[in-house]
Amino acid sequence: MDITRIKIFDTTLRDGEQTPGVCLEAGEKLEIAQALAKLKVDVIEAGFPIASPGDFAAVSMVAANIQGPTIAALARANKKDIDSARQALEKAESARIHTFIATSDIHLEHKLKMSRGQVLAQAQDAVRYARQFVSDVEFSAEDASRSDWDFLCQVYRAAIAAGATTINVPDTVGYTSPGEFGALIAYLRENVVNINQAVISVHCHDDLGLAVANSLAAVANGATQVECTINGLGERAGNAAMEELVMALNTRREYYRAATGIDTKQIYRASRLVSTLTGIILPPNKAVVGDNAFAHESGIHQHGIMNHALTYEIMQPESIGISHNTIVLGKHSGRHAFEERLKQLGHELDSQTVNNLFGQFKELADRKKMVFDRDIEALVNVKKTEAPE
Ligand code: KIV
Ligand code: ZN
């Protein structure tokens, strides 16, 4: 079976830093960039150098110190931004300038105050200018998913003709749906005559909770680069979460016929690091990296898991770098899980004693949300001091 290699373009340090309330210092960005290099992402978007002197310094520091992934810097489609990006990237082993301009009529009318013809010319000029400095130029049509499809085709064709090596299709406001976005990628592949000269990338936001689903639909229709962030950080509701996208492709490799180069065992560590440095705490039920992602509470599930993990786990905790799953003892837990925990705590008890203790455990679990090891120890100790029955 042919497996298509999907490039992971991580934008935790750029779009992820646009998460309201998040501000990373250069040293913190470098620490995250090191974790991203260990994950083996293909591209690290390190920042938007024109945005502030601090961001310029951070991009320069990442460019000078990270080997392996390509380092990208963002620039609007003008010479001043592109000059700033290329200067910040000077020391990079492999550098990419990522330039963008909006293409939707909403943005043209209310933000840029430009005609379609002017946007097309500016996009082409910016790509041509950036190509004077680096051989790797990405062009994004901001708000692509709300743009006229035929105008989009014209803009991408012009950008590729000017030297863009990647064309990115952003769902800037998280507006699209999987069916529609997949159809857009297929349309571009059919109607942009020179599309084979560039990598097709997507960049989805999560305003309707569809960023990962939309990215996967794009992959199914021929996109070969996905832009994403650790823990799904990013502007407003965030971007496609890297850990979800990568594990979806890993878990359903045959279905998507696609694979990334990510070392998935580094996922949990990177997720915790980003959460600590940004101060954005993950909800316990967050897919893949939340505290409950590998925790089993109901007796039926616990029993299944103890027989074979595949019964209720579609991926193993070890695959993302967690040493084992968690059996949470609560009121839905069964006797099997309870007896297993007793054994783990060193108590090999006869079946009658286990039955008695299990009854007391259930009463306790009705009063407490979770029963901890120390509660079980207390039940066992009380039992030991009771007169024999
Ligand atoms: O969401 C967006 O459109 C962006 C672009 C700059 C790629 O972040
Ligand atoms: Zn974005």
Automatic annotation (TrEMBL):
Enzyme Commission identifier(s): 2.3.3.13
Tree of life domain: Bacteria
Cofactor(s) the record lists: Mn(2+)
Residue span, Pyruvate carboxyltransferase domain: 6-268
Known pathway: Amino-acid biosynthesis; L-leucine biosynthesis; L-leucine from 3-methyl-2-oxobutanoate: step 1/4
GO terms, molecular function: 2-isopropylmalate synthase activity; acetyl-CoA C-acetyltransferase activity; manganese ion binding
Amino acids binding Mn(2+): 15, 203, 205, 239
Listed GO CC annotations: cytoplasm
Swiss-Prot/TrEMBL keywords: Amino-acid biosynthesis, Branched-chain amino acid biosynthesis, Cytoplasm, Leucine biosynthesis, Manganese, Metal-binding, Transferase
GO biological process, one term: L-leucine biosynthetic process
Catalytic reaction list: 3-methyl-2-oxobutanoate + acetyl-CoA + H2O = (2S)-2-isopropylmalate + CoA + H(+)
Entry function: Catalyzes the condensation of the acetyl group of acetyl-CoA with 3-methyl-2-oxobutanoate (2-ketoisovalerate) to form 3-carboxy-3-hydroxy-4-methylpentanoate (2-isopropylmalate).
The family this protein is said to belong to: Belongs to the alpha-IPM synthase/homocitrate synthase family. LeuA type 1 subfamily.
Self-association state and partner proteins as the record states: Homodimer.
Protein name as it appears in the record: 2-isopropylmalate synthase
Biological source species: Dendrosporobacter quercicolus
Gene from which this protein is expressed: leuA
Residues of the full protein shown: 1 to 389 of 515
